[in-house]
Design a protein that fits this description.
Elements (H helix, E strand, L loop, with lengths): L11 E5 L4 H12 L3 E6 L2 H14 L4 E6 L5 H14 L5 E4 L16 H23 L3 E6 L25 H21 L5 E7 L15 H6 L5 H4 L1 H8 L9 E4 L2 E3 L8 H15 L4
Parallel strand pairs: 1-2, 1-4, 2-3, 4-5, 5-6, 6-7
Antiparallel strand pairs: 7-8
Helix pairs in contact: 1-2, 3-4, 4-5, 5-9
The structure holds NADP nicotinamide-adenine-dinucleotide phosphate (NAP).
Length: about 280
């Protein structure tokens, strides 16, 4: 039994971070349902290996590689322009790529979790937005995390410096709060366009995201996690289920709508994040 039950023939999807983990399964299952899938990754070698793996499972999969490094605003602009130049529609944008547990900054000097998990995807989405609207009905899915419940807010004064904590976990949680807030702000702006937005927690998944966790802790912890196939179910639900077609701006867990953290429901915070993000990436609000 495959998770996507509706036909996506004639549809175009783009999945970021599709070379491994939840993103690979998401891309593979969208392709299995008939979508043409853009595999947007920072490593061409990894993307090609992943596309070979997807084709082994889905021989007629229509896959296209798009070079995308979300840790660089310049590279993100290039990727968006390359996609737009293809002339393709964009019915399903899945902002899946993300990292956790790193220290440092992005190429543009933003805290690495915030820059990669929020600011890059914010810019990428905004640059693709007109194409998504022109392709409506269309959906934008942002893979967030239950980690957002642990965030104390968006630390606007600490985002243009390297990671302060040793684990990078508080910064990760803040970046995931940003994903939920962005989804909400985007939904508001897209009202009446036929484009709907979704944020979600995929579950605690035995993917590469735990690569920074020291051994043997990683090995032990991963034994209790769900598989990447299970971890992709909520992304696929948000991207394709007819049952959520009329919903927008909401947060999901285990393929069910769930109330996000109080901070994630703060419209003023969502608006401030949108405006500051626009300023940082050089776009009009
Ligand atoms: N696994 C979990 O338990 C869990 C829980 C909650 C939320 N999530 C979220 O689920 C999403 C998918 O994560 P995963 O668990 O599948 O992790 P993963 O296996 O580590 O995959 C993450 C993907 O993001 C890509 N990526 C990282 N930095 C990038 C950049 N600068 N530019 C472009 N792509 C980049 C990675 O590429 P490389 O292979 O080149 O590094 C990889 O393809 C993430 O947003 C994560 O925060 C995961």
């Amino acid at each position: 039994m495959h998770p996507v039950t509706t036909s996506l023939r004639g549809k175009v999807a783009l999945v970021t971070g599709a070379n491994t983990g939840i993103g690979l399964v998401t891309a593979r299952e969208l392709a299995r349902a008939g979508a043409k899938v853009w595999v947007a990754c920072r490593s061409q070698a990894k993307a090609e290996a992943a596309m070979a793996e997807m084709r082994a499972a889905v021989p007629d999969a229509e896959l296209v590689f798009l070079p995308l490094d979300l840790g660089s605003l310049d590279a993100t602009r290039k990727a968006a322009h390359q996609f737009l130049a293809s002339g393709d529609s964009l019915h399903l944008l899945v902002n899946n790529a993300g990292l956790a547990g790193f220290q440092g900054t992005t190429d543009d000097g933003f805290e690495i979790q915030f820059g990669t998990n929020h600011l890059g995807p914010y810019l990428f989405t905004r640059l693709l937005l007109d194409r998504v609207i022109a392709s409506a009905p269309a959906r934008i899915v942002n893979v967030a995390s239950q980690g957002h419940y642990k965030s104390n807010g968006i630390p606007f004064d600490k985002l243009r410096e390297k990671t302060r904590t040793v684990t990078g976990f508080p910064e990760y949680c803040d970046s995931k709060l940003a994903n939920v807030l962005f989804t909400k702000a985007l939904a508001q702006r897209l009202q009446g366009t036929g484009v709907t937005t979704y944020s979600l927690h995929p579950g605690v998944v035995a993917s590469d995201i735990w690569r920074r966790l020291p051994q043997p802790l990683r090995w032990i912890a991963m034994r209790f996690m769900i598989t990447n196939d299970q971890g992709a179910l909520t992304s696929l639900h948000c991207a394709t289920s007819p049952s959520v077609a009329e919903q927008s701006g909401l947060y999901y867990d285990k393929q069910t709508e769930k109330k996000p953290a109080k901070l994630a429901r703060d419209p003023a915070l969502a608006e401030e994040l949108w405006l500051r993000s626009a300023q940082w990436v050089g776009l009009a609000p």
